[in-house]
Design goal:
The protein is of the alpha/beta class. It has 13 helices and 24 strands.
């Protein structure tokens, strides 16, 4: 079976547009929230994003996608991009970008040109997004193996590791390049602004077949000199690393030992964690099965190494790439989950588990970075891992909009159908679905996020949820305003709308307007009774769906949310 055929079959059976099968009895679920026991502050770990292709940020759909992200938490959203120092004319390609920041004249004199990288960072800041600065990759004039320089990679073929991936022939010039860049940023954006950014060196240096052409020791030297360049320009800059792939190795421990011995400043630690979906072929079709267990195990392996070091266990941690699988620009049948609600429900289910793993080890998880953005001028719903397609929001970006509404302090919340963390790490979610919950309170506003997740991207029974929220307090009196937002097969789902209109490859203006409308989150507001500080709500949670409930004080006139 070709991957294109498999992809088509997966789309046909995907939960993005398929209702529960007839005869599937609803799953009765009981969820309880205690609004009277606020705990620790909510950490908005979701507010980090990134992409291989930095130049997409300045293009039409890149600008609009960045604007959406910036609106979620102005000046608190961060964006990480590869290729910020790569040589070239700024023309993007899959897994490629360039800024031509550094060249050398005939006599070897460095020439710095910040025009393109300034345009990228300006685009971020104009949309209230901040840089998470990845220092890389190697300019052609500095590379120890410069030819060939630009890779010829494309989905399914080509070599990725070419001249851009190798160590510098002159570490002093590398350090000076970083120093000059950061000094320029301070002059352009201001000292306090640049001090609020993150700075880290390179990408996944523990994967020599992909992003790094040197040894481990050469990376450590590269990192030390880069951080020295940053701190020379801005002593208070926030620096860290190593943004390794979660590959089950000892690289993190070796890195911690090195920076400790070398005295290299380290304000935060970073690594990557990915899942591993598969395409399950069945007679006459097939479907995607996600690998959430692999994702969680990869993260916990790195958490364990950090927790074992007393000097570093108190440092903030950013999971610098955290995704259902490893290659955003790759297509194929195992990636058919991306356009629909499997991606959005997976995101809702995995983020709280990553936080729980860090909490269990006594670590501070500051960020979880989704390596997903957009792919400019590609076919609509082409199967890349992205937040928007052809300028149209996908279901997954709507989950981040829901995350952005959760603030204040966490609340005790439980669901009798939420799978235990240890169980999910061992076996994933392969039998009973995972119908889980998190909740928070910000003043008198109570928010409750409910997800209905299963590893298998197949239709299944909806959940009939009885949600009881106690401890609301006297301000709620006898009633509450209840607002619900949904991301599921019939709500905030542009992909389902596209499938329903026949999957047009070139939507008309009218069709595009309908797709944009279908992508929007729509608030449904009712009033519910409150008695003795307690409200009970009944709602339907479709498979692969995510729901956010928000309660504020009001007057009781209605007790049930519509179940449509």
């Amino acid at each position: 079976m070709t991957w294109r055929r498999a992809l088509a079959l997966a789309a046909l059976f995907a939960t993005a547009g398929a209702p529960a099968q007839q005869g599937d009895a609803p799953i009765s679920v009981t969820i309880t929230v205690n609004a009277g026991q606020p705990g620790k502050p909510v950490e908005p770990v979701w507010r980090f994003f990134g992409a291989d292709e930095p130049n997409y940020a300045t293009m039409k759909d890149g600008r609009t996608t960045l604007a959406t992200l910036g609106q979620l938490a102005p000046d608190r959203v961060y964006f990480r991009a590869h290729n910020l120092l790569t040589s070239g004319d700024g023309t993007p390609a899959l897994k490629w970008g360039s800024t031509n920041a550094y060249i050398e004249e005939a006599a070897g004199r460095p020439v710095y040109n910040w025009t393109i990288v300034d345009r990228i960072f300006d685009t971020y800041r104009e949309r209230r997004v901040k840089p998470y600065v990845e220092i890389g990759f190697m300019p052609e004039a500095l590379s120890t193996r410069a030819r060939p320089y630009q890779h010829d990679w494309r989905p399914g073929s080509g070599d990725l590791r070419t001249g851009w991936a190798f160590p510098p022939r002159d570490y002093a010039k590398w350090e000076e390049l970083v120093f000059q860049w950061v000094r320029h940023c301070v002059e352009r954006y201001g000292r306090a602004e640049v001090a609020s950014w993150y700075f880290q060196t390179w990408n996944e240096p523990n994967l020599p077949q992909y992003y790094w052409g040197g040894t481990r020791e050469e990376f450590f030297r590269l990192h030390d000199t880069a951080i020295r360049g940053v701190r020379r320009a801005l002593p208070e800059a926030r620096v860290g690393g190593p943004d390794i792939a979660g590959a089950g190795d000892d690289f993190m421990s070796a890195f911690l030992a090195h920076v400790k011995a070398a005295g290299t400043p380290t304000d935060f630690l970073s690594f990557h964690a990915k899942g591993q979906p598969q395409f399950i072929e069945t007679p006459g079709g097939g479907h995607v099965r996600m690998g959430i267990a692999t994702h969680l195990k990869a993260a916990d392996h790195e958490f364990a190494q950090i927790a074992a070091d007393p000097m570093f266990r108190t440092k903030p941690i950013v999971i610098g790439e955290s995704d259902p699988e490893g290659c955003a620009a790759c297509q194929g049948p195992a990636n058919a989950y991306r356009n629909g609600t499997m991606y959005s429900s997976y995101t809702a289910a995995v983020f709280p588990r990553l936080q729980a793993l860090a909490d269990a080890r006594g670590l501070k998880l500051e960020g979880v970075l989704s390596w997903a953005f957009e792919y400019e001028d590609q076919p609509i719903f082409a199967g890349f891992r992205q937040l928007t397609s052809a300028g149209i929001d996908l279901p997954v970006i709507n989950v981040f909009k829901l995350f952005a509404r959760i603030g204040g302090r966490t609340l005790p919340a439980s669901s009798d159908h939420q799978r235990r963390l240890a169980e999910v790490m061992i076996a994933g979610v392969r039998n009973a679905p995972d119908i889980g919950v998190i909740a928070a309170r910000d003043g008198e506003k109570v928010t409750v996020l409910v997800w209905h997740y299963h590893d298998d991207d197949l239709p299944g029974a909806d959940a009939d949820v009885r949600l009881t929220i106690s401890g609301l307090g006297s301000r709620f009196g006898s009633g509450a305003n209840v607002t619900r937002w949904r991301v599921d097969r019939t709500h905030a789902n542009s992909y389902a709308a596209w499938l329903a209109m026949g999957s047009p490859q070139a939507p008309t203006t009218e069709q595009r307007a309908r797709l944009i409308e279908a992508s929007h989150l729509v608030a449904e507001t009712v009033r519910a009774g409150v008695k003795a500080g307690q409200a009970t709500l009944h709602l339907t949670a479709p498979r692969s769906g995510v729901t956010l409930i928000e309660l504020t004080p009001g007057v009781a006139t209605q007790k049930a949310l519509p179940k449509r």
